[in-house]
Write a structure and sequence with these properties.
By secondary structure, this protein is an alpha/beta fold. The protein has 24 helices and ten strands. The chain is 57% helix and 9% strand.
């Protein structure tokens, strides 16, 4: 998960505060000290951290709180709102509309990952039903067009560039005219970068912008530079009318918090963050869900959106029907869905109560490797074994040895996979009869309470505990609003609907 160390430190400070017998000024002071230390270690500007601390103290005035007030909850809410304020510039960015031609120009320093980010941006919108195209107007860096061509081919996005023409503005205009004729509704222009901010770079950007008149200029910035991002974002914003920022290299860098807060201080909205080298390592940046995941509060609405992208609506009902008999084949399908959703750390961080401590650095890759290992073992099984309602009973020693040999694994790996299936089948047995009405967040209080009681009985104790117990589950139901919780649990293979 992005900024896992920062999230662990802040959520740990809040957890220790919550466990205190009495929440007084001393306990609050210790909690704020830990949060301050965590933010400074993430390279957030000192002035910003000082403001966050002062604002939390102002919101949480323990002396003026009425008797019986839940002080712990007020402190948690104050920390949440202040972190959101720190990262939110309060200004929306331009959003392309499908079917309506839009031109987006990318700018940034050399080495920030700008060309790769262009392809990631194109692939993201292609997945949303757009018809994107890429234009390489970078004539400064040797190999820029080759790199863009390679990324565009991988993303299956049409591209345009020239090995002969040296005028970037001319290439940009030619590419624009070509893709407008081809009815592309999102034309992405990649411009030259430099090793440092200099007059030649800004002049070239101005010429390309003047020639193409982009709807949005996106500044791509290296997240590892921390609070130095403030100066970069400010300089580009003044010179190139930057309307949004994408922060790259957010995986494994402790300075990411400083970069995000510094950009927000320039009133430039961050719209995406890059979390790796692959085209799919690209996340939408939305402040409230991001902070919610950071503090272990989850983002179930975001998780539902991910599930609905992976599992088409016409398949969701079939999936729910299959739950009446949980087989290895269904487990295989759920593993496929899980891998399609992106990194396991990101998916699990959307679950309420999830702490990044539950998935330490390195274990995410181990988790994905284990899922793939189990799928390889299942690939060596017969249809009868995959569709059996009780494969453990069916599994003889000779079958186990045959499957192990066929998959190139040890016998103990096959036994481990079957034990994992048995554990999950037990959870499914509790969940499959659970009836969850649509739009639970819009129901009357009486009906909501009845559904919550159903959930409490059906949910595994550990899952309920991670959600924050009964109060956490009640808060989750309210947070769902108009979202269909039945679809969400169904997509995860955990429920039914009315």
């Amino acid at each position: 998960m992005v900024l896992a160390q920062l999230g662990t430190s802040i959520s740990g400070a809040l957890a220790r505060m919550s466990k205190a017998t009495v929440v007084d000024e001393k306990v609050l002071g210790e909690c704020l000290k830990e949060i301050t230390r965590a933010l400074l270690q993430s390279d957030v500007q000192f002035e910003t951290v000082r403001d966050v601390q002062a604002n939390i103290k102002k919101i949480v005035s323990l002396d003026t709180l009425a008797a019986g007030t839940n002080k712990r909850r007020i402190i948690q809410q104050a920390v949440f709102s202040e972190l959101c304020r720190m990262l939110d510039p309060g200004k929306p960015a331009f959003v392309p509309k499908k079917g309506k031609p839009s031109v987006v120009m990318f700018v940034g320093l050399q080495g920030s990952g700008k060309t790769t980010t262009c392809a990631k941006y194109a692939q993201y919108y292609q997945g949303k039903g757009f018809k994107p195209s890429l234009v390489c107007a970078d004539t400064f860096r040797a190999g820029a067009f080759d790199q863009l061509k390679q990324n565009a081919t991988k993303a299956r996005v049409p591209f345009y560039g020239s090995y002969m023409e040296s005028d970037p503005a001319k290439i940009a205009v030619e590419g624009l005219e070509r893709f407008r004729k081809e009815k592309s509704d999102l034309i992405i222009i990649d411009t030259s970068g430099r090793h440092k901010q200099e007059a030649a770079l800004f002049e070239e950007m101005r010429q390309v912008a003047e020639a193409t008149k982009p709807d949005l200029v996106i500044f791509v910035m290296d997240g590892s530079i921390g609070q130095a991002a403030f100066g970069q974002a400010q300089a580009f914003k003044q010179s190139a009318s930057v309307g949004a920022v994408i922060v790259t290299k957010m995986d494994g860098h402790a300075n990411g918090g400083g970069a995000l807060s510094a950009v927000a201080a320039t009133n430039s909205p961050v719209i995406f963050i890059g979390t790796g080298e692959h085209l799919g390592d690209f996340d939408v940046f939305d402040v409230k869900p991001f902070v919610s995941r950071l503090l272990g509060m989850g983002d179930l609405p975001g998780l539902i959106d991910k599930l609905q992208d992976i599992i088409p609506a016409d398949q969701q009902h079939d999936l729910l029907e299959k739950l009446s008999t949980f087989t290895l084949r269904l487990l295989y399908e759920q593993f496929q869905n899980l891998l399609k959703m992106g990194s396991l750390g990101q998916v699990f961080s959307m679950l309420p109560g999830f702490s990044s401590e539950l998935m330490p650095k390195g274990s995410e890759k181990d988790g994905q490797a284990k899922i793939k290992r189990y799928m390889t073992i299942m690939d060596s099984m017969t249809d009868a074994e995959l569709d059996s309602p009780n494969p453990k009973k069916l599994m003889t020693e000779s079958r186990t040895i045959r499957i192990a040999r066929g998959s190139g694994r040890q016998v103990r790996d096959v036994v481990d996979m079957l034990d994992e299936y048995k554990r999950l089948a037990k959870v499914m047995g509790k969940m499959k009869n659970l009836k969850i009405p649509k739009n639970i967040g819009k129901m009357s209080d009486t009906n909501q309470n009845q559904t919550i009681q159903q959930l409490i009985k059906a949910l595994p104790p550990q899952m309920l505990k991670q959600m924050g117990g009964i109060p956490g589950l009640q808060a989750l139901v309210k947070k769902m609003g108009g979202k269909d919780m039945g679809e969400m649990l169904g997509g995860m293979g955990l429920g039914g609907d009315l």
